[in-house]
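In response to the reviewer comment on reproducibility (Comment 2.3), we provide here a single inverse folding case reported in full, input and output, so that an independent group could reproduce the run without further information from us. The structure tokens appear first.
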């Protein structure tokens, strides 16, 4: 987990049973963001690279990427700080693709989506076609090709996972450059959204060497801000920023709205699907458990977890759920059947 103490960035490993600190790394990180995003305490989440290693993309340390030994906490490698600095800091998480770890490095108007060797940190490839967005990349096979799909500063892009070559690009401009919704791949569709833009599905096609992302449907009734959606076989679930926060479900094939809640749920929610369940942690300090139903918002239980905002996604380990507010990690154990 990441935390912040003064001008220091802290990366910690905690014992899941007791909360005791197993190891930590601290280093100077004097970078200060604009005040509004700094109050949210959002940051990229650590990602497992290899069975014995992990990577952490630091929000505060000028968008540096670090790798650690899981057992000892020994730092294995770290990238140089970004130059120029990110406008709102780093809010995306790195992703692992085979022996590569991929992250959007750099700052506003100047960055590079970069693939690093997971073991050494050496650069495998870099795409410099746009500045970074604030969404996390995903890997999917589309039109027969393994691709990295993400939001950049001004576009939704698909790159060849092996080489970083740009395959296709769709313009995506939002107010205040709030392009922070991680794309969702459902079957052969890429579903994307942004502040005050329709939630839209594209089908990626290839004709020889020509790639296209063709719009299949767009739903202007639900528009995501900083909350990324999740999906089951029957529905796409998300939190629209309309009506001060509405949970919703869409038909992934047509984009038709299946249901919405009344509103005033939260400014933001992190949504995780765990089998037949949805786990929704909100900026109101609530953890909501609901069934992943296409018919209605089937809420099972609503827990008040903390009195401060939760921005990070819930983490699952067996029957244990860990959530993080602005400065604490809170661990719950699931009891009973199901």
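Designed residues, in position order:
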């Amino acid at each position: 987990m990441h935390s912040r103490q003064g001008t220091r960035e802290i990366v910690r490993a905690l014992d899941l049973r007791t909360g005791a600190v197993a190891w930590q790394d601290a280093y100077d990180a004097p970078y200060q963001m604009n005040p509004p995003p700094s109050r949210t305490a959002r940051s990229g989440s650590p990602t497992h690279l290899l069975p014995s290693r992990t990577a952490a993309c630091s929000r505060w340390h000028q968008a540096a990427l670090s790798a650690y030994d899981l057992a000892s906490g020994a730092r294995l490698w770290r990238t140089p700080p970004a130059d120029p600095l990110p406008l709102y800091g780093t809010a995306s998480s790195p992703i692992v693709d085979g022996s590569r770890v991929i992250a959007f490095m750099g700052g506003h108007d100047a960055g590079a989506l970069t693939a690093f060797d997971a073991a050494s940190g050496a650069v495998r490839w870099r795409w410099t076609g746009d500045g970074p967005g604030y969404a996390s990349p995903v890997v999917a096979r589309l039109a027969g090709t393994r691709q990295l799909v993400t939001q950049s500063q001004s576009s939704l892009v698909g790159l060849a996972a092996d080489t970083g070559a740009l395959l296709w690009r769709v313009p995506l401009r939002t107010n205040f450059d709030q392009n922070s919704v991680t794309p969702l791949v459902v079957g052969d569709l890429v579903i994307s959204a942004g502040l005050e833009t329709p939630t839209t599905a594209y089908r990626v096609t290839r004709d020889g060497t020509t790639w296209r992302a063709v719009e299949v449907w767009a739903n202007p009734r639900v528009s995501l801000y900083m909350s990324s959606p999740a999906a089951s076989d029957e529905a796409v679930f998300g939190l629209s920023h309309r009506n001060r926060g509405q949970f919703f479900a869409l038909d992934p094939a047509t984009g038709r709205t299946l249901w919405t809640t009344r509103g005033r749920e939260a400014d933001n929610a992190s949504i995780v699907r765990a089998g037949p369940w949805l786990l929704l942690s909100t900026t109101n300090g609530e953890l909501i458990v609901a069934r992943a139903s296409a018919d209605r918002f089937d809420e099972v239980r609503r827990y008040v977890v903390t009195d401060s905002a939760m921005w990070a996604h819930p983490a699952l380990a067996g029957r244990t759920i860990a959530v993080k507010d602005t400065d604490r990690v809170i661990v719950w154990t699931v009891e009973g059947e199901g």
